[in-house]
Structure prediction request, 419 residues.
Amino acid sequence: MTADHSHSHDHTHPHPVNEDDDMDLTEHEAKFLALKAMLIEQGILDAAEIQARVEVNELKTPHQAARMVARAWVDPAYKARMMADAKQAALELDIPVTEAALVALENTPDLHNVIVCTLCSCYPRSLLGEPPAFYVSKAYRSRTVREPRRVLREFGLTLPEETEIRVHDSNADLRYVVLPQRPDGTEGLSESDLAALVPRDALIGCAFAKTPS
Amino acid sequence: MSTRLVSDIGGKPAGDIPREERRQLFWEKQLIAVVNLLSSKLDITLDEFRRAVEEMSEEEYGRSYLYGRRLDGWLRLLFENGTIDADAHAARTAQILASGSRDHV
Amino acid sequence: MSEVAFADGARVRIVDLGKPGHVRTPQYVRGKVGVIERFGGTYENPEDRAYGRGRGTAVQLFRVRLRQRDIWPDYPGCEADTLEIEIYEHWLRPEPTGEAQ
Prediction:
């Protein structure tokens, strides 16, 4: 971001700061700006509701799913409810869920779950926000169903042959979240400290939870 | 074998998975907000959007990326159902590109 | 609500309906055999929903578990590895018990 950026003219109305103002306008952005202007002029949307929605979406981050994981690690009854119905378990923690259904997948020493959407970019956005670049890449979408062990090795996860790898193609109406294994040496940690050990990729099955430093 | 959708790439040979984090751009965040609002206001389903994306040519799909596909798929739907006039949108886009400025929107 | 079409654990074959247009059954699982992992609920058929809401009939969705070796004969992983995918009922047929091919 530029340090000394300033507009050469005054705005008569406040609007959110565009942190990409120093980047050249691309054709895609121009097409979007044209669309947005037309939708506003036609009275279909207004700028305030767009901004309000951006702010709602910003609350969707991997921390939401990490909170569920931490609770499941410390509370077996919650974990049982999460495994039975992850959507209800999210709502229980006041996480708003827009997906029709959420399924939690528990990783154990014997079973490692990993999530992919081969047909598009289905992702549990209420719990994790927008998907990372690797998840939406055509290479991840193509290869994860065909050679998951190799893909996971590229992510630094080498799993023993005895561990079953189970790939979940998130191809239709359900959405998934991985419940990673609780790391050793985390006894007695608070829920918020535990949640901090759960990186985004562990919630997709592409990483392990971190061990406390 | 039946026709394979351009988006149906599971199992196809592919190269390295990009591992660099990519920051979501300002306009991309706005796009998501806009399409979230439109899908409820205009009652457009996820499958309509998916179908619109699948109507891209293989070549178009091949070089597209997530937010470009989202925008183009939605534009296709909005042109199709008459919400947005395609010619007026093209003219407006050209005008914005020519000005090189985001400020008049 | 109508009865659930397949019980958990039932062997099924994912068929290739050869249907043009928007479908959610990817090519790589067509013709393959697996077992029902769970019933995933009832949804408006996406093959119709893709052309406007309210056009489709309600269809049941199932989670099907397949052995990777049954999907890819030359699968480069372990025997026990599996894959799960969501398939709507009209793409599924009961499969007699026996070795998956």
Remarks:
- Chain A touches chain B through 56 residues (CB under 8 Å).
